[in-house]
Design a protein that fits this description.
heterodimer, B: 145 residues
């Protein structure tokens, strides 16, 4: 493993731990306190407040210093990313109204393969999708489907 | 139409949404930092989901308890202030193809926590799933390209 990649693996694993912990907590919250969409909406508001508190000095400096068309392009791409994630969450909850979790969760779990496919199609100039990455991703998705099915 | 097919359609749309979300981050990082990018993306998600929640369940937004608000704060911290920030940082360092499957292994963490916290039983299927995910991640970690 190349040393330069280590921080990236660490941050990706930290993201999985954060998301995984929030999934366990949200099971109880959604069952006993509020609907999934209301929970997501309020969680996003609090998440934004925390992000602003954590990143306040950095964000203010960046917003003041880098007012160029390049920044505008970056903002548009990240707005697209945020909206796409919102579509993902909303569609997943809509799916659960029409089909059981045994169908919805495994189908939704293929999203890393979608990301890899789109990366291969549109981001070849930025990164390369190798066979080993594809096989690894297929095993992760397969395993996640098994984990999901074992819990319902 | 069979309701399951509609459910599958929405699930595929969800997978597409999450996939597109990750892929847009990579070119975005060429223009702005992952910190500003995370902030912008959480604002966009909040406006989108807030609007959908207001349109579909407006009264519920004003009937949440104080205890629920406290849990929402914990979820916001874990999912968006930490989870999304770490994910975008991971994409910045590794690229989408490596970071997305590792973050996609989130149910593995949830399953382990559920066993530890809620004392849920460890079935053969769960053990097989966990093993398969770990092998997949090891293969990705060993990729040198």
């Amino acid at each position: 493993m190349k040393g330069r990649l280590l921080p990236g693996y660490f941050f990706s694993a930290a993201a999985a731990v954060s998301y995984g912990t929030s999934q366990v907590i949200s099971r109880t919250v959604v069952r006993e306190m509020a609907s999934p969409l209301v929970t997501s909406a309020f969680s996003l508001i609090f998440g934004l407040l925390f992000l602003y508190l954590f990143l306040f000095p950095t964000l203010n400096r960046q917003i003041r210093q880098r007012n160029t068309p390049q920044v505008g392009r970056g903002v548009i791409l990240f707005v697209g990313s945020g909206v796409a994630a919102g579509v993902g969450v909303t569609a997943m909850y809509a799916g659960l109204k029409w089909a059981p979790v045994t169908v919805v969760s495994p189908v939704t779990a293929i999203n890393p393969l979608v990301a890899i496919g789109l990366t291969h199609l549109f981001l070849q100039h930025l990164e390369r999708v190798t066979w080993r990455i594809l096989v690894g991703a297929l095993l992760v998705v397969g395993g996640v489907v098994m984990i999901t099915l074992s819990q319902v | 139409m069979d309701s399951s097919l509609i459910g599958i359609g929405f699930s595929l749309l969800a997978a597409l949404g999450f996939g597109v979300s990750a892929v847009l981050v990579r070119p975005g990082l060429a223009h702005i930092s992952f910190t500003l990018g995370t902030f912008v993306s959480v604002v966009a998600s909040m406006l989108f989901i807030g609007t959908i929640a207001a349109l579909t369940d407006f009264s519920a937004l004003f009937s949440v308890s104080l205890a629920a608000l406290a849990w929402f704060a914990v979820l916001g911290l874990l999912s968006f202030a930490m989870g999304r920030l770490f994910y975008y940082r991971g994409i910045a360092r590794l690229g989408v193809a490596r970071a997305a499957p590792i973050v996609g292994a989130t149910p593995l963490v949830a399953a382990v926590l559920a066993i530890l916290v809620y004392q849920e039983a460890l079935s053969y299927l769960l053990a097989l799933g966990v093993t398969t995910v770990v092998i997949g991640i090891v293969i990705i970690l060993r990729e040198q390209g």
